[in-house]
Each structure stands twice: as C-alpha cells, then as structure tokens.
Specification:
Layout (H helix, E strand, L loop, with lengths): L1 H10 L3 E4 L5 E6 L2 E7 H7 L1 E2 L12 E5 L12 E5 L6 E3 L23 H4 L16 H7 L3 H14 L17 E4 L3 E2 L1 E6 L3 H9 L4 E2 L2 H10 L1
Parallel strand pairs: 10-11
Antiparallel strand pairs: 1-5, 1-6, 2-3, 4-9, 5-8, 6-10, 7-8
Length: 222
C-alpha cells in the first residue's frame, strides 16, 4: 500500500508560484512596481491572479511545473500548489531567453527597480517554436535543461543574437507554465530558506521546506 501511495504522489502535478521576499506577487503600474497579491490573500481565496505583463504579451500568471529534471525556481521562496486547471501553454525555459536583446540579466535583484525597461523588450520572431500545449509534449522534446539550453542558443544565433554565456544557464533550469486567467488552487506548502519563511508557513498553517528540492525528496522518501 505504501509503495502504491508513493507512486500516486509522484504522478501528481505540483506547481510553484515564486514570490518576492515579502511573500507577495508584484505588477507594474506605469514605471513603478507595486504589490499585487500577498501569500495570505492567495491562501485565503485559494486563487492566484495573473500579475506579469512583459515582452508585449498579455497579462499572465507564470508558474513552474515540478519534475525530476526541473527542480529550480525563479525565486528562492514561494508557494507549492496543485490545480485542476491546465496552463494555456508551457515554455521549457524562462521566456526572457527568447527576448530580442543581447543584454539578459540572470539575477532579479539587478533589474527589480528597472522592470519597465527590461520587460519592454520584444521576443525574437518565431519564438513560438518553444511553446508547448502541455508539459508532456514539452518534456518529450526537451527532456533536460541541457537540451533546452543548446536549442535556445542555436535559435538565438540563427537570428543574429549572441550566444548565451554559461552564467545564464539557471534560466533553463525551470520551465514556465503560463495561465492567462486567475486559477483556483490547493496550497500544498511554503518554501524558502530564510528564517522568516518558516514563521509565514506556520501562520498559514502549511508545511515548510527550505527548497522545492527538499519538498520533492519528501515525496520520494514518503
């Protein structure tokens, strides 16, 4: 029975919504970044709203699907959740790697005060080749971040943009599942390495993990 239980847990789909250090999502209002939805509101309403507006795309909710090969996150803290709703599409990497610029910055803290400039870039024509209708088709085409990394570099070179230095590799270590609507969700856990994160998890009455890797290992170990 225990083996069957663990197998069923591994087959379930878990998503991550990364949050900023104050445990809130942000959005742009003009040139200013403002609070959009707090973790407390997300847990209370069991709903996550689209907050990201960039690269000429419509407002969206960007999350990550957890998988053995995709256990990194956009930020080091956030919410692990489940939902019965399906993403509108999935990228095997951070969409920023498809932007029509040679200046791609890995660390969010370096751009967080200039998001209106950074997010105003357009995407390289024919970027749609990296869009997948579901995770199964995406992981079949790109079974590992290394394969996605090679593919996006070939794509950028063909379009006269520079090859990405290895320091940008972390931007293919998580996928980007996109919803163009608010979604209903079931909160599973809070993750983050800062001491304050454990206190937030306690207030929200949710399990706390230092990282999504620790959460994933807990599924494997039962």
């Amino acid at each position: 029975m225990l083996i069957l239980f663990l197998l069923s847990m591994q087959k379930e789909v878990f998503y991550v919504k990364s949050l900023e250090e104050d445990f809130a999502t942000k959005t742009l209002k003009g040139k200013k970044k403002v609070n959009y939805q707090t973790a407390y509101d997300i847990i209370k309403t069991k709903k996550i709203k689209p907050n990201t507006k960039s690269f000429g795309r419509k407002r969206r909710l960007s999350c990550t699907v957890l998988h053995d090969k995709y256990l990194k996150t956009y930020r080091p803290q956030g919410i692990i959740f489940q939902t019965t709703e399906k993403p509108d599409y999935i990228f095997p990497l951070d969409m920023v790697l498809l932007s029509a610029t040679n200046k791609i910055i890995v660390h969010y803290y370096r751009i967080k005060n200039n998001l209106h400039i950074y997010y105003n870039h357009t995407l390289i024509p024919k970027f749609e080749k990296f869009i997948f209708k579901d995770f199964s088709s995406m992981i079949k085409k790109y079974p590992s971040p290394e394969i996605a990394w090679r593919a996006v570099n070939v794509f950028r070179r063909k379009n006269k943009f520079s090859n990405l230095p290895r320091q940008k590799f972390r931007l293919v270590e998580y996928n980007e599942a996109v919803f163009h609507r608010a979604i209903k969700m079931r909160p599973i856990a809070i993750f983050g390495y800062r001491k304050e994160t454990a206190k937030i998890a306690e207030k929200l009455n949710l399990p706390h993990y230092v990282s999504v890797k620790h959460f994933w290992k807990s599924l494997k170990n039962g």
